[in-house]
Design goal:
The complex is a heterodimer of chains A (about 160) and B (about 775). In chain A, about 80% of the residues lie in helices and about 0% in strands. Chain A is elongated, with a radius of gyration of 17 Å. Chain A has 5 helices and no strands. With about 775 residues, chain B is of the alpha/beta class. Chain A: This is DUF222 domain-containing protein.
């Protein structure tokens, strides 16, 4: 059954979204709201990864239940660079580029949840459908967040400097 | 007339009364030494300006000087009472170190200048930046202490004439969450309840609200109920054992940063015990099922682990809240300045909504304010909202405002929410805001992470204008300083927490060349030669009363409707609650009496925000969620605070207000009684913690966080173990010390994503004795 493939793909994209949220958080240490909220939202993705790994067992998949809790060894470097360049207006463009990338990746995760939910309905897997119904709204909230940050921050970046 | 030593006896004598009775009158007064009441030339009506309570008072004038104050016996707010700050604080106005002339920066020093010269510099720089970058280069940061006329004028100049999105008030630090919580639950700002609900309530629940110190006259009202027949039960949520906690039937002392978990636990119990007013919920609200789902697993046991509060205490509090027949809930900084501020404050609204406790005597919510005129900052649109509680995301509202101002709608920025202060500061940090005009506030002491704040304000590339009555820590970074007239030296209206509007008359002349903030803003507008669509000067008004008349037009038809008020009407009877209209000429005691809200999609001030991410709700989403404009029950999950105590920094640090001081003490430290009462910063900790840290009462300690350090004398107090408390009032203008005194050296740069209010009550800290001490 190809549903396993969808599960595996979603597990991969959620894991990478969690990692990317930490990366964005550290790369923009001086943008305090982005820094803090990105970490809060990475927590959602980490919980999704855990739940997907559990669900995967029923489909004979062996998926890691843990997603990264930081942006890895480079975290301190990313933060330092952010602090060192934080007084330059040009970093605004990097921020917009990262938020844009984040938005697209989150949209990918959202689509993957959509596919999983469709598959779960087709084979009447209540448990899997319940999982999608519980997690997908959080993905949509992540998506709205990156969208709203882009909307709020872009005017200043685009008209100054 | 009773005169007491309000320092040793801050709340005065009891005048007990029972439920539903009128609170007895007790007139408090204080006159300068040697002045008797019969010597006073004139008594000039005003209201209290050193806290948010809005107590009506009269200023005593003799030989052209302020010589004292007395409470207004017939004022609905205080029935004659005054708090220590009111009784003594007026002396600051006559301080010899008032600013009496403009100052400009020459060779790194502030030197005296004429108004023409100072204004020329501000106007020249404004024009240069408008040419180079446009209005996004300019930002305005105002206060919670000016008058409505002044905020409205500033909003018209900034949002209208200049068209910048960067306008906020220091209300961001104290009441942004009150506004956000009201918008989230009711679609609009505006205080549902009234102080008179204290007279009727059988349970008063105070959430992070140390009313005994922040609104001490309101506390005397509660004390008088407690001393009378059938006293109300008090529920107090506060990590410190305050005077309120000592008087409470139940005192919950949660770990800082865990308010949402605690509230969810209380709601869980009320739902489990089925103490829900289902008829009210069904008829007047949306979202109840989501709340049931959210709090389903928030059992007292589970919540107890997070908050460090025994489960039986949570059950006991829930029993009181759930059994109340007239429940008055109040909220202040313990929630607003803590982690998940809006989410927590909204759960208090949810509590009253599920219990159907709204809009009737004794039943209501008071989302409190911290400053005397914070309500005006919000309603006039000087704080990151649009004038008259208009919705920036509703094009019709913006068009209406543009018609009022006779400007092109595109001139009023509404492509995104108005920029909040912390984001403005970030823009100043990255060099895209290059002009910042600060009025009546002192960010160099009051904002979090002061080392960073100073590094931003001191930049050469930032043109800083500061308008104040005194030199402050902030004026020292300024390019231009304007000397401002203050309370008692100008006329205007202001509105307190429970929507009571007072007219504050001019009692004396301002010193030297000082001018009212209104006159300064209008002078700037004339020199900038702002024009409306017909080429007429904008703003069209020229003094306080004409500004008030203009503001009335802007408020007409909106929830904060002033159209039924005039200066003369307030002269006849001071203290009237908005909305005040032709239909309701005596004002409105309670909002939402009939279960009708300002939440209709076409009328609401805000479509709300996600309580966790802060993302604004899209108009369509709001419309489908709440098509009939009901109250909204919005649940929230608990998230761990961003900075948790650890081995290196084992304490949770909270900062806050005290009874005798206000803001950064620019006034209260210049009133001898208040200054003597608390001249120096201190730190409170529990006896057990002190013992473990080898500290004793009176020791000099050094408190450190990842941001900096503060030195303070230790006071052993009843405060929960693991928590340190520092008052935030102390800065550097009145001390030899140049560092390690202001609490905000320690606080983090982090804010609630929904209300954008900075978090002052969750920081990991260490404490140790200063070695040379003892």
């Amino acid at each position: 059954m190809r549903l396993g493939l969808a599960l595996r793909e979603l597990h991969r994209s959620e894991t990478s979204l969690a990692a990317f949220l930490y990366e964005v958080s550290d790369r923009h240490r001086v943008e305090h709201e982005v820094h803090h909220v990105a970490r809060d939202l990475a927590g959602w993705s980490r919980a999704h990864v855990r739940d997907l790994a559990e669900a995967g067992e029923r489909y004979g998949l062996s998926l890691r239940g843990t997603a990264p809790e930081s942006s890895g060894l480079l975290a301190p470097v990313r933060r330092k660079v952010s602090e060192l360049t934080g007084r330059r207006a040009e970093t605004g463009l990097l921020l917009l580029a990262d938020l844009r990338r984040l938005h697209r990746r989150t949209a990918g995760v959202s689509l993957d949840w959509e596919l999983l939910a469709q598959g779960a309905q087709a084979i009447k897997d209540h448990e899997l459908l319940e999982l999608a119904q519980r997690c997908h709204p959080q993905t949509l909230r992540q998506l709205k967040w990156s969208n709203s940050m882009l909307k709020t921050l872009s005017p200043q970046v685009l008209v100054s400097g | 007339m009773a005169e007491r030593d309000a320092i040793t006896d801050p709340w005065g004598a009891r005048t007990p009364y029972g439920p539903g009775d009128s609170w007895p009158v007790r007139v408090d007064s204080h006159l300068a030494d040697g002045v008797r009441a019969e010597d006073v030339d004139r008594w000039v009506p005003s209201a209290a300006v050193l806290h948010s309570n809005g107590d009506g008072l009269e200023i005593a004038v003799k030989d052209g000087r302020i010589v004292g104050v007395r409470g207004q016996a017939d004022d609905r707010v205080n029935h004659g009472r005054l708090d220590p700050k009111d009784l003594y604080g007026w002396q600051a106005g006559a301080s010899p170190d008032r600013l009496t002339t403009p100052l400009v920066c020459e060779g790194g020093r502030l030197v005296e200048a004429t108004w023409d010269e100072a204004m020329r510099r501000v106007v020249t720089r404004s024009r240069e930046l408008l040419d180079e970058q446009g209005p996004s280069a300019l930002g305005f940061y105002t206060s919670g202490q000016l008058f409505a006329e002044e905020y409205y004028t500033l909003a018209a100049i900034a949002h209208g004439a200049l068209g910048t999105n960067h306008v906020d008030g220091n209300t961001r630090l104290c009441t942004a969450t009150a506004a956000a919580a009201l918008k989230t639950s009711f679609g609009c700002d505006g205080q549902p309840a009234s102080y008179t609900d204290v007279d009727h309530a059988d349970v008063i629940a105070l959430f992070g609200h140390n009313v005994a110190e922040t609104q001490s006259v309101l506390w005397t009202r509660m004390l008088d109920r407690l001393a009378g027949p059938k006293p109300p039960a008090l529920v107090c949520v506060d990590p410190r054992t305050t005077a309120v906690a000592r008087a409470a039937t139940v005192h919950l002392a949660p770990l800082p940063g865990t308010n949402v978990a605690l509230m969810n636990g209380l709601l869980h119990e009320i739902i489990r015990n089925d103490q829900v007013d289902h008829a009210y919920v069904e008829k007047h609200t949306v979202g109840y099922d989501d709340l049931v789902q959210q709090v389903a697993d928030a059992t007292p046991e589970r919540v107890a682990d997070i908050c460090g509060v025994p489960p039986e205490q949570i059950r006991e509090a829930a029993r009181l809240l759930g059994g109340a027949e007239r429940l008055l809930s109040t909220v202040l900084q313990g929630f607003y300045q803590s982690h998940q501020a809006t989410a927590a404050a909204v759960q208090v609204n949810n509590l009253n909504l599920v219990r159907g406790m709204l809009g009737k005597p004794g039943a209501g919510v008071l989302q409190m304010n911290g400053q005397p005129t914070a309500e005006n900052t919000r309603e006039c649109g000087a704080d990151g909202d649009l004038t008259g509680f208009r919705n920036w995301a509703n094009d019709d509202h913006v068009a209406e405002l543009a018609r009022l101002w006779n400007l092109d709608p595109m001139q009023i920025p509404h492509y995104a929410p108005p920029t909040h202060l912390m984001q403005m500061l970030r823009y100043a940090e990255n060099g895209t805001i290059r002009f910042l005009w600060v009025s009546a506030t002192n960010p160099a002491v009051s904002l979090p992470e002061l080392a960073r704040v100073r590094s931003i304000l001191e930049q050469d590339r930032l043109f800083l204008v500061v308008q104040d009555a005194f030199r402050t820590e902030t004026t020292e970074f300024a390019d231009v300083v304007f000397p401002a007239a203050i309370w008692g030296e100008k006329i205007g209206t202001f509105t307190n927490v429970d929507r009571t509007v007072h007219l504050s008359e001019k009692a004396v002349e301002p010193p030297g060349a000082a001018k009212s903030d209104l006159d300064i803003f209008l002078d700037y507008a004339r020199r900038m030669d702002f024009r409306d669509r017909d080429g007429e000067p904008f703003p069209a008004w020229h003094d306080a009363e004409s500004a008030f008349e203009a503001w009335k037009k802007a408020s007409a038809g909106r929830p904060c409707d002033y159209s039924g008020l005039t200066y003369d009407k307030l002269r006849a009877k001071n203290g009237i609650q908005w909305p005040c209209t032709a239909e309701q000429p005596d004002g409105t005691e309670r909002l939402y009496v009939d279960g009708k809200f300002f939440a209709d999609p076409d009328y609401c001030e805000s479509y709300g925000r996600d309580l966790i991410t802060g993302a604004p709700t899209e108009p369509d989403e709001y419309r489908s969620m709440n098509p009939d404009g009901k109250a909204m029950i919005r649940p929230a999950e608990y998230l761990s605070p961003h900075e948790m105590p650890d081995e290196e920094r084992p304490f949770a640090l909270i900062t806050g207000r005290t009874l005798y001081h206000f803001h950064t003490r620019t006034k209260t430290a210049r009133a001898p009684e208040l200054q003597r009462a608390e001249p120096e910063v201190w730190v409170e900790m529990s006896e057990r913690d002190a013992k473990e840290c080898d500290l004793e009462d009176g020791d000099l300690a050094r408190i450190t966080t990842a941001r900096g350090a503060v030195q303070a004398k230790v006071r052993l107090r009843e405060i929960r173990d693991g928590v340190l408390f520092l008052p935030f009032h102390y800065g550097y203008w009145d001390t030899e010390a140049t560092s390690e005194r202001a609490a905000n050296e320690l606080t983090p740069t982090d804010w609630d994503p929904a209300s954008k209010q900075p978090i002052f009550k969750t920081a990991a800290a260490a404490i140790a004795r200063v070695e040379e001490d003892r």
